[in-house]
Amino acid sequence: MFTGIIETTARVVKIEKENTNYHFTLEVPFGNELAIDQSMAHDGCCLTVVKVDKEKRQYVVTAMDETMLKTNLASWKVGTEVNVERSMPMDGRFDGHIVQGHVDQTATCTRVVDENGSWRFYFEYDPTKNDFFTVPKGSISINGVSLTVVDSQKGMFSVAIIPYTYQVTNFHNFQPDTVVNIEFDVIGKYVQRLMAQYMEGQR
Fold it and tell me: With 80 as the cut, is the pLDDT of residue 20 above it?
């Protein structure tokens, strides 16, 4: 489980394909602290560390075909900057919201507005892929970043980004047509599913 509070960004240094799997080698400042079997969120996608080179501060994660199809990992190249977060310690503060690291789908950035001190990012997603949706002031995870929804319409939402988040995450690389991973609020998903089952039972 994660909180959506990004620790830092990692850089993709190598990509290898093996059958339908992709092995990504990334470099991160805390690479010497990692261990095999550790779970980490990469742009909001939970992946397992399978190899570590502590001297180079590098590690390897593997993404299967299902992950490549449902996330933005297929767009990663050598040099891509990736938001990373290690799993939440049980004795730590819960500063974001519940992020499972299970990407629901991708969204596309449609507009970036400089608001003279902050930025407003607008995103569109396919509302027919699942029944999930956003609500104003609700939570959303974008590339693993815990954020609050500002505008909310069917298939579209916006978020406001402060300078700190802009600088320490890969939001500073976003531009129109950038594809990102999104995870809807897990509590909202359960409520929506329960309501759907209830309505079905009333028919």
Answer: yes
Between the CA atoms of 145, 65, 75 and 147, what dihedral angle is there, to the nearest 10 degrees? -10
Residue 60, token pair as written in the block: 């390897």
Residues 6+ apart with CB under 8 A from 75: 179
Cα 175 to Cα 2, 51, 113, 159, 171: the distances in Å are: 26, 33, 10, 14, 9
Grade residue 1 by pLDDT with cuts at 50, 70 and 90.
Answer: confident
Tokens of 203: 């028919």
End-to-end Cα, the chain, rounded Å: 37
Long-range contacts of 34-40 (CB under 8 A, 24+ apart): 34/59, 38/86, 38/87, 39/86, 39/87, 39/101, 40/84, 40/85, 40/86, 40/87
Instruction: Please state, in angstroms and rounded to a whole number, the distance separating the CA atoms of residues 56 and 94.
Output: 31
pTM of the model: 0.90
CA distances from 1 to 88, 101, 144, 176, 197 (A): 6, 7, 11, 30, 26
